[in-house]
Recover the amino acids of this structure.
């Protein structure tokens, strides 16, 4: 395990952790985190993959974890920048470090939304999406929809105005978020077609991805309903997309959870499912 910082074109650095396989011919995996989740959450899973012949790279988006400045109040970045600057910088770093290796991507939640915006996403040769979804309000119903709307229309704008960042660690499992990132994310969530209604040429960016994509959903996921997961998976028009729904009982547990995939308790179950997916991408 090796922790480094890479410079970006937006004049802030991104913290990256490398888990390099002993096999010099190993292919590479980049893990794209969920919103406000530190990269170290994925480190045990990354070690598991590196012991199984993959060189793995995790990173913190700008403003998160080891990519966080002393104060978020004076730091500015957006969700779009997370894709087009942060994620892109990591892809370019991995390609320069391992030019002869294939690049596979594993996304968690927002990571699967961002891959369509990464300028070099045509380099991806296989993608696993763990509960990656649209955040649009239309994919929730009843009281859950009201909760989502209150968050987007009231909580996020109000707290960002008061604190100049989103203190989300006080009311969610997420880390605090940069103000402009949180506001842009909230804007996306207000639109029926999510970020497709907010960013120019999104469809063209998504259409550059032509590899195999395996998209996973689970039961009882407040953050990623099945319709929301279906929607984002359907936007990769030129990719070979496989949608799979995982049931907790198949893994001997009561609930998997939106933040459960990468926990150690799934080392002998879901992690092996992902490993088999990666091996399918090799062919």
């Amino acid at each position: 395990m090796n922790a480094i910082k890479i410079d970006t074109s937006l004049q802030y650095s991104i913290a990256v952790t490398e888990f390099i396989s002993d096999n010099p011919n190993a292919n590479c995996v980049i893990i794209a985190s969920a919103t406000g989740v530190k990269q170290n959450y994925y480190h045990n899973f990354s070690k598991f993959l590196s012991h199984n012949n993959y060189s793995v790279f995790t990173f913190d988006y700008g403003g998160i974890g080891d990519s966080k400045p002393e104060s978020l109040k004076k730091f500015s970045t957006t969700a779009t920048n997370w894709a087009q600057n942060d994620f892109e910088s990591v892809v370019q770093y991995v390609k320069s470090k391992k030019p002869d290796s294939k690049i596979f991507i594993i996304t968690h939640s927002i990571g699967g939304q961002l891959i369509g915006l990464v300028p070099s996403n045509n380099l991806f040769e296989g993608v696993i999406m763990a509960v990656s979804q649209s955040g649009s309000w239309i994919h929730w119903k009843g009281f859950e929809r009201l909760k989502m709307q209150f968050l987007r229309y009231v909580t996020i704008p109000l707290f960002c105005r008061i604190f100049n960042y989103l203190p989300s660690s006080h009311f969610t499992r997420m880390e605090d978020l940069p103000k402009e990132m949180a506001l842009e994310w909230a804007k996306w969530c207000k639109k029926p077609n999510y970020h497709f209604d907010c960013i120019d040429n999104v469809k063209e960016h998504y259409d550059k991805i032509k590899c195999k994509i395996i998209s996973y959903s689970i039961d009882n996921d407040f953050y990623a309903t099945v319709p929301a997961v279906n929607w984002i998976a359907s936007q990769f028009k030129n990719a070979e997309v496989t949608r799979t729904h995982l049931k907790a009982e198949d893994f001997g547990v009561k609930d998997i959870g939106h933040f459960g995939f990468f926990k150690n308790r799934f080392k002998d179950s879901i992690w092996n499912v992902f490993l088999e997916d990666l091996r399918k991408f090799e062919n």
Notes: Helices lie at 43-50, 79-97, 110-114, 142-163, 179-189, 202-207, 226-234, 270-282.
